[in-house]
Amino acid sequence: MIFEFRNIAWFIGLILVQIFFIDFLDFGIYSSYFSPIIICFFILKMKLDTTVINLLIYAFFLGFITDIFRNTLGLNTSVLLIITFLKPTFLYSISSKEDIEKDVELNMFTIGLVRYLLFFGISIFLYHLIFFIMEQFSFNNLPILFFRAFINTMSALVFLIFLQYLFIFKK
Question: Any idea what the CATH number is for the domain that residue 156 is in?
Fold first, then answer.
């Protein structure tokens, strides 16, 4: 029961923070470079024993709700489904299956800071890169797309570390 409430709270909380806080940050002429997306944290933090079908359903609804509020016409939904599908590949590329317990949520306190930065960094970078490529629908200015993805990944990781220190209690 507590686990379900926490998931619902993270689901709603990440959407609210994304839509009503991060999307309203204004940095003047640099705002086009700064638009971090943190909603993928919900999917990436889920326990390893969560079924792929459940993860895809969560990803669909999370992306769909975000797309409605951000007016992005399915971009977040499609990219979040891709990231959800690739989650085990990213995770097992940085550690073996035996290193991480299946019934523990993935966050910086349970998998360690280095693994957290690698796993979440790769996943969030790919999320931003695919999002920006699909948004632009072109490979023109690829260095700028990589730069935007890198800047948004770094800012999203910093923001997520801050959120984890606030809302995840260390054991």
Answer: 1.10.1760
